[in-house]
Structure formats: C-alpha cells, structure tokens
Amino acid sequence: MAKSALRVLEIMEFVATHKAGCATHTEISQALGIPKSSLTALLTDLQRPGYLELDRETGRYAIGSQVMFLAHAYLRNLNIVRLGTPVVHDVFLKLNVYTTMVIPKGDMCLVVCSESLPSPLAHSLSIGQHIPMLHSALGRAILAFLEPEEVERFLHDYTPTPYTDRTKTGIEEVRKALAQVRKAGFAHMQGEYLPGIIGIAVPVFNLENRPIAAIGIGIPAVEGTTEFEKRICKQLLHSADTLSRRLGAKLKPTPSKLLRKGEEE
C-alpha cells in the first residue's frame, strides 16, 4: 500500500478513536510520527471532500460527514441473508450436519437459510418456518444476549408451551438456562423443541453488538458425542464471529504495527 494511503488511514483511525472523538494537529503528529509539514498537507486534503472537519475555535479535527456517508452506504448493502448463506454453507460442509440460520420475529424465529442432507429434521425446519424463541437453541441464543430489560419483558408476556416432556416451562429455570447461554456463548438443548434432537446455536451480532440472528445445527441425540459437540461449538463460534465482524460487530482500530509493517514493505 502506498505510504500516503497508509498515513491517511492512520490519521482517520487515530482521530476516530482519540478521546472525545477529535484531536489537534500536534496530537496527531506526535502520536503517529508524521512531520508537521507533511501532516498539514494530508489534513488539508482530507478536509476538502469532508472526511475530516476542523473546529477553528479549538483547533481540533473530527471525523467528517463524508465518512458517515460511506459507512451508511456500506451498511445499506449489508444483508444478513446474503452474507449469512455462504457461512451456513461452509459450516455444513465442515460438519456435514443440518445447519441453519434464523432471525428474530416477535416471539418466534424465522428460518432464512439452511443446508442439510435428506433427513426428517430438514423437513421440520425448512426455510420460512417459524420456531419458538424460548424453546429452541437458535432462539435462545438470540434471546440470551438481548438487553436484560428486553428479556424480562419477553418473559413477562410469554406463555411457555410444552412442546415435549423435556421443555422448560418454569420462568426461573428458563432464566437459569439463559444465564448459562450468556456464560458459555452458545445455546445447547436436547429434546426441548423436537424429540430426540440436540440443538446447538450461537448468536450473530450487528454493528451495535446486538444479536440479530443465530446460526445453529441439529443432530439426532444418538450422534451427540462429547468430542463431536465440542467440534460443533468451536466451528459455530468461529463462523458466527466471522459473520458478526462482517456486519460491523466488535470492530477495533487497526493495530498501528500492521500499518507500519505495510509501510515498510
């Protein structure tokens, strides 16, 4: 990458993450090691199209409106189904089990994509199918990571349905189950929604670190060995994290050493 391009990226990220979201000419120069004369030219170039804005009273530079325009353009083009479908496909290829993704819809979840070998489970959870938020691993993976007040409103208004003899219907045991999901980072259920089926699911987060979907698998309980379930959890967590980052979750500034390395090359 060209040196000037790296400098621009460094400046933008430094200003965006600096205290109060703005920085002076001197602060930028000292932090990034850019000569003041070179920095002046770069800052002037960034101000013209609106990528940076200068408060002439304080002498501080802040991120400009053009950056927001680019960010909104990026977010407009994000589509959870379009981005999630290849992730679901990749999980299916690696695990060779029924794999699906859902999005929340009221007190239910909507299946938006799935991959499977021919099986009864594939017919039970086909695209367009609604499944319960509270009594499926997929739904519970979403519900557990909502804000506490949202969870309490949901529990207050929801009437549990005993889908099987293993379905948790007591509010306190449901609260305990949600706490376990938050602690583990994934939901694991056996036979609560579909008899004889183990469900494992993980949440997918958006730019605001809000759960907007879940990716999960379903396998017959007889196939659920400890080692296989560990492998499933590891793959799901990795895949969901990858998708979440594509949606803007958990974003962090680029480590300066990476930019420096690219500059040296």
TrEMBL record:
Taxonomic path: Bacteria, Pseudomonadati, Pseudomonadota, Betaproteobacteria, Burkholderiales
Ranges where the IclR-ED domain occurs: 66-249
GO biological process: negative regulation of DNA-templated transcription
UniProt keyword terms in alphabetical order: DNA-binding, Transcription, Transcription regulation
Name of protein: Transcriptional regulator, IclR family
SUPFAM superfamilies, per database record: GAF domain-like, Winged helix' DNA-binding domain
MF GO annotations: DNA binding; DNA-binding transcription factor activity
Listed InterPro entries: GAF-like_dom_sf, HTH_MetabolicPath_Reg, Tscrpt_reg_IclR_C, Tscrpt_reg_IclR_N, WH-like_DNA-bd_sf, WH_DNA-bd_sf
PROSITE patterns registered for this protein in UniProt: HTH_ICLR (PS51077), ICLR_ED (PS51078)
Organism: Paraburkholderia xenovorans (strain LB400)
Domain HTH iclR-type: 2-65
